[in-house]
Design the sequence.
């Protein structure tokens, strides 16, 4: 798509993304001309890939492993001479370059990061902490920059800002603000990047040399991940690679970029060829998290409000509007565990959060039994799994769980059969109550057309059945000295897809209230693959997983087509995607639509959850995403909050959030959805 034809929606900058890359350029010891050419080559490649900010390793212009050659005047003069070549070539390039070089000032040499934009040096940041232990001897050659604030330095006849009190900010791209550390700085107990982040930098860069030893890669990951999480920012790290002197050390060229503790991309280590490691950083997500996390603001105040005294060096980025795609891992199922090495641990944790919470509630209230409605669907199945495990761990018989299946006007033989199979497989006390006679009587009493033989299947018709089931459960709980386990999940609460009051919105304890539909499906499958119960239970669970999601409140039509929840409220996989980005990050609908489009437009691209069924790998075009996102916005913001305001207790399970008015989400019940709908209408094409 030509840039002139690009709708702003398709430009990543519209949504606050900044394309960041780490470079491992070609390098040769003390060969300044060769190194300068390597820097330029990577800058040109980054320009072609639409990179906004390009990070090079420490002392990338001179090379790092020079020892006393750092003190040679000829080398230092060559650095400045070839720096001018880089400046000249950068005039027509989009990426802002951050390169490493030794620079002289007032009789001292500093290990510096030089920021270059379109032919000019914006500023120079010196290294704060110089390692001088084991294999390092930097204090022999360099002066530290810890006290260098409010200073300037002359470079190539120009006077530019110099010091550790600098952040750089794009004047034409909100959120594109970055600070700089150099190698040892983030190994220190008091990294200078802390203040840069508190001064407003959403992105921190680390120019590093860092020779490689066994296990050091893990250490770098730990520090980079921790820095991005603690500072609430994106953190890019670039280490020296092939070509540095191997007199006593070796180099692996590791590059990586984390955002809020999430690894976005990592380079190929020990690569013989130069390499770019490119990804897109979501600065809106970062800023939203800082607004939400009051501790971050408190820390900025406690540090003397660095934004008041840090120097902000502005620049005009000038990137032309263009559809450059999105280079970033986006989880289609943000609530579902996606780490292969941690898969069992994550699922175990999610499941046992529910089990542990239910056990505590049982111990606190000492019910004679637990009462649960078993429909043969996903939610009641998972609630039963949790209840059975809780009883097992408490040493109580499963017969203390009283399960009731309550067929209505549209209950299928398949789900009823599964309900019975499930209850028998678990060995709980199982009973069946046919609600049709009572429902018919109620419909007659209120004068509903269905009672006169008319096929009127409206909301009242549905709610009579849903309400009766809950009413029966509460009365049964009272009769048997127990309480009702709620089966409704987080997705249903978000969409208001539940009957209020005397209906499935209410229970004594909602074990699934923090678990969305997509995670419930995954956890049920996990219980079968890890054999949490016996083979007979696993067989029934797999059958339930293959059943169409339906409330089964409206009879099938003449063609036998049953009532489908997802055809009414939208695919749960999309709704859960929308929900995560709205409640966890507070992102606008158009931003969510942009992410969803890139996540779901191509079923062959990107990663799916581990062992995800092939025949369930769907794709959605932008109009479909926009349609269901509009529906989600209407239901979530404009319709269903009153149901959430009165929801029963239940455990939060995912960092993605929950909707309890006593926890993650507090909102008025009478708000309107107009501004969210307007954002969609104005900013999403079509």
Sequence:
């Amino acid at each position: 798509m030509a840039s002139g034809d690009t709708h702003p929606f398709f430009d990543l900058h519209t949504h606050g993304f900044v394309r960041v890359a780490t470079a491992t350029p070609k390098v040769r010891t003390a060969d300044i001309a060769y190194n300068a050419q390597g820097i330029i080559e990577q800058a040109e490649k980054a320009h072609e890939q639409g990179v906004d900010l390009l990070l090079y390793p420490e002392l990338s212009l001179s090379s790092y492993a020079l020892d006393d050659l750092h003190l040679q005047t000829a080398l230092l003069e060559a650095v400045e001479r070839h720096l001018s070549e880089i400046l000249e070539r950068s005039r027509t390039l989009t990426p802002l370059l951050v390169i490493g070089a030794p620079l002289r000032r007032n009789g001292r040499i500093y290990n510096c990061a030089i920021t270059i934009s379109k032919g000019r040096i914006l500023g120079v940041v010196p290294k704060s902490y110089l390692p001088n232990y084991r294999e390092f001897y930097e204090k022999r050659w360099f002066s530290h920059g810890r006290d260098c604030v409010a200073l300037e330095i002359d470079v190539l006849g120009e006077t530019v800002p110099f010091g550790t009190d600098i952040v750089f900010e794009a004047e034409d791209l909100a959120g594109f603000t970055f600070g700089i550390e150099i190698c040892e700085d983030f190994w220190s107990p008091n990294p200078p990047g802390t203040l840069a982040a508190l001064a407003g930098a959403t992105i921190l860069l680390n120019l590093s040399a860092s020779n490689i030893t066994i296990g050091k890669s893990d250490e770098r990951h730990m520090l980079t991940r921790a820095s991005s999480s603690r500072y609430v920012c994106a953190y890019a790290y670039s280490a020296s690679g092939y070509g540095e002197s191997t007199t006593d050390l070796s180099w692996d060229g590791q590059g990586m970029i984390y955002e809020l503790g999430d690894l976005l991309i990592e380079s190929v280590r020990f690569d013989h060829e130069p390499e770019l490691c490119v990804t897109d950083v979501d600065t809106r997500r970062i800023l939203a998290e800082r607004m939400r996390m009051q501790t971050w603001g408190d820390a900025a105040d406690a540090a003397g409000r660095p934004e008041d005294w840090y120097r902000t060096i502005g620049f005009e980025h000038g990137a032309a509007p263009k559809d450059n795609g999105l280079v970033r891992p986006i989880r289609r199922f943000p609530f579902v565990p996606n780490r292969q090495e941690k898969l069992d641990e994550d699922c175990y944790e999610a499941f046992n959060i529910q089990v542990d919470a239910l056990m505590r509630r049982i111990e606190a209230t000492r019910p004679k039994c637990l009462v649960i409605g078993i429909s043969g669907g996903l939610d009641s199945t998972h609630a039963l799994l949790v209840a059975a495990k809780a009883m097992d761990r408490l040493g109580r018989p499963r017969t203390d769980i009283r399960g009731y299946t309550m067929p209505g006007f549209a209950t299928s033989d398949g789900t009823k059969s599964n309900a019975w199979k499930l209850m028998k497989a678990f060995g709980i006390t199982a009973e069946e109550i046919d609600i049709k006679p009572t429902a018919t009587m109620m419909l007659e009493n209120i004068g509903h057309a269905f009672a006169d033989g008319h096929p009127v299947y409206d909301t009242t018709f549905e709610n009579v059945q849903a309400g009766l089931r809950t009413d029966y459960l509460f009365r049964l709980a009272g009769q048997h000295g127990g309480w009702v386990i709620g089966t409704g999940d987080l997705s249903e609460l978000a969409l208001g897809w539940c009957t209020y009051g005397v209906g499935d919105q209410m229970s004594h304890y909602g074990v699934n209230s923090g678990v969305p539909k997509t995670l419930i499906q995954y956890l049920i499958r996990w219980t079968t693959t890890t054999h949490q119960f016996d083979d007979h239970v696993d067989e029934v669970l797999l059958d339930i997983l293959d059943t169409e999601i339906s409330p089964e409140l409206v009879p099938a039509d003449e063609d036998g087509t049953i009532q489908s929840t997802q055809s009414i409220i939208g695919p749960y996989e999309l709704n859960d995607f929308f929900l995560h980005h709205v409640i966890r990050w507070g992102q606008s609908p158009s931003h969510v639509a942009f992410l969803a489009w890139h996540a779901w437009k191509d079923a062959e691209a990107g990663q799916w959850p581990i062992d995800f069924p092939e025949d369930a790998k769907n794709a959605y075009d932008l109009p479909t995403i926009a349609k269901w996102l509009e529906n989600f916005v209407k239901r979530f913001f404009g319709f269903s909050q009153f149901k959430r305001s009165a929801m029963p207790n239940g455990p939060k399970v995912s960092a993605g959030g929950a909707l309890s008015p006593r926890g993650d989400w507090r909102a008025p019940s009478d708000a309107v959805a107009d501004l969210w709908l307007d954002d969609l209408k104005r900013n999403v094409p079509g």
User: Anything to note?
Assistant: The mean pLDDT is 94.
